[in-house]
Amino acid sequence: MIEAPVKEPVALDGSGGVTVQDVSRTFATRRGEVSALAGMSLRARPGEIVAVVGPSGCGKTTLLELICGLQPPDSGSVSSAPAALMPQRDLLLPWLSAIDNAGLALRARGISRSRARAAAAPWLERFGLEGFERARPATLSGGMRQRISFLRTLLAGKPVLALDEPFAALDAITRLQMQGWLANVLASEPRTVVLVTHDVEEAVMLADRVIVMCARPGRAVAEIEVGLARPRHRTDSAVVALREQALKALGVER
After folding, report:
1. Which residues pair with 83 in a beta bridge?
2. How many Å apart are CA 189 and CA 58, to the nearest integer?
3. Is residue 213 packed enough to be buried (19+ CB in 10 Å), middle (13-18) or exposed (0-12)?
């Protein structure tokens, strides 16, 4: 069998945007119907990082699944370039090595293990994981596992990345380190990103725009243009002011 060439993660070509227009989504449960989203709209321009914040249960994960085509809206429309989802949990397969977990997206496309490993190897080095190629997930730190999970998402070769609370399970220090790491990666490998997070400061530090959602049924109630050059420093007055603006939109009094 002749295998197709292994493609590097895509370069953004101007067509990799996301538009969610007046979307509603309802689920049937044992207790009746639950409206997850109602009139939700969002736009991410090609190459833009858009963070979505909101209270628990407001439909943020549902929004990402709609963008990735994993479920349909009941009403409204979703238009997105091909998107890859990074779930909140890393979901690494415990019996596979780090390099084989990273290459899972390539294996799913029918690429052999040896060629998937060859494609993933230089990325592991770039991601600071050189020397851990053969390590099993149980032997890796939380930050390492999240890097592998992100690499697996990147190697899917999609122009849109849907990141669902990627650092929520990490301790505070590792989370701060990973935020800086992700900012550097996206600076060198730009993608359209929709980032769901509960951390308002994380949203301001990473995103070009922040969308604030209300409690279920979720919809956008505020849109905050960040407009700050990178790198950003969390103690800068502009960062602090934007964080407070987002918290106010969420109804959090400080």
Report:
1. 160
2. 30
3. buried
CATH of span 18-82+158-249: 3.40.50.300
pTM, entire model: 0.90
Length of the chain in terms of residues written:
254
Residue-wise pLDDT tens digits, 136-177: 999 999 999 999 999 999 999 899 999 999 988 888 888 898
How many other β-carbons are positioned within 10 Å of the β-carbon of residue 15?
9
Residue 149 near residue 68, CB atoms below 8 Å: no
Q: What is the largest CA-CA distance in the chain?
A: 63
DSSP at 25? E
The CA distance from 27 to 47, in Å, is: 32
- How does DSSP classify residue 230? S
- At 61, which helix (H) or strand (E)? helix 60-67
Rounded Cα–Cα distance for residues 194 and 63 (Å): 10
Distances (CA, A) of 65 to 53, 68, 80, 194, 197: 16, 5, 11, 11, 15
Closest CA to 17 of 184, 240, 192: 192
Model confidence at 10, in pLDDT bands (50, 70, 90)? low
